[in-house]
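Technical annex, item 7. During the second reporting period the consortium partners agreed on a shared format for inverse folding records so that results from different sites could be compared directly. Each record opens with the tokenized structure and is followed by the designed sequence. A conforming record, contributed by the partner at site C, is shown below for reference.
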């Protein structure tokens, strides 16, 4: 078993099966961060972004669904992602979470590529 599988299983155990998620809410933790990237795990359980709220971040974000499903809303579309799916969100592409599963909770693995100069 490689190290990534071990890390993944430990993250799921810690955040989902130990009950550290919040019903109709969300819990997140930064797993790794340096000058170039940030990796964050988010557990959402029936969560939606607040009304009229949009994420507008400077980093390129790749989201992977490790468990459950989540729906992201963009200005022109909605996209539902299920376990095993991934999506790349370009910098300043406004988006919001419009829905996430409850049983099982949605587990997102997010990679943020920070802007930097060569």
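Designed sequence (site C submission):
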């Amino acid at each position: 078993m490689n190290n990534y599988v071990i890390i993944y299983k430990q993250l799921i155990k810690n955040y989902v099966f130990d009950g550290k998620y919040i019903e109709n809410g969300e819990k997140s933790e930064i797993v790794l961060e340096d000058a170039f990237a940030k990796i964050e795990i988010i557990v959402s359980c029936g969560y939606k972004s607040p009304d009229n709220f949009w994420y507008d971040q400077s980093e390129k974000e790749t989201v992977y669904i490790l468990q459950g499903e989540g729906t992201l809303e963009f200005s022109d579309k909605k996209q539902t992602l299920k376990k095993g799916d991934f999506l790349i969100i370009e910098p300043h592409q406004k988006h919001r979470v419009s829905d996430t599963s409850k049983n099982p909770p949605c587990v997102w693995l997010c990679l943020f590529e920070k802007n930097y100069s060569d």
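The chain has a mean pLDDT of 85. Residues 2 and 61 are 25 Å apart (CA to CA). All partners now use this format for quarterly exchanges.
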